[in-house]
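BUG: 3D viewer hangs when loading the predicted structure for this chain

Environment: internal workstation, default settings.
Expected: structure renders.
Actual: progress bar stalls at 90%.

Input used:
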Amino acid sequence: MDTKVRIIPSIGYQDAKNAVKWLCEAFDFKENALYETEDGKVAHAQLTYKGNMIMLGSSDNGSEFSKLTKLPTELGGFVTQSPYIIIDDHEIEAHYEKAKSHGAEILLALKSEDYGGKNYTCKDPEGHIWNFGSYDPWRT
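Structure tokens produced before the viewer hung:
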């Protein structure tokens, strides 16, 4: 089986520098790379979590891609996609508490699912929705 991650979510932020800091503190991501534009905006950032990655950038960094996306604040608080990130069984409750302590808005509280594992859903400070759970579809 090919274990190289080939699907990487990409998310725009109004304040991408602050988003990088917050995502690392609240969700345990690690900064892998950060490239700035000449005017100090984030052209591209890569954050990792246990061998997986998300990419993000400033929503108004002038790139062709940034012209194709909208922020949740521009869509009445709605999002059209949200990542699901697998957290180890023994870490999910602590992850949930840490996210709450950093101000993540809990939309769906941590709960056990009939199909296995526990999960929760929250919003980050800019309104992006994140799903975290110990259910691992690769183990089924």
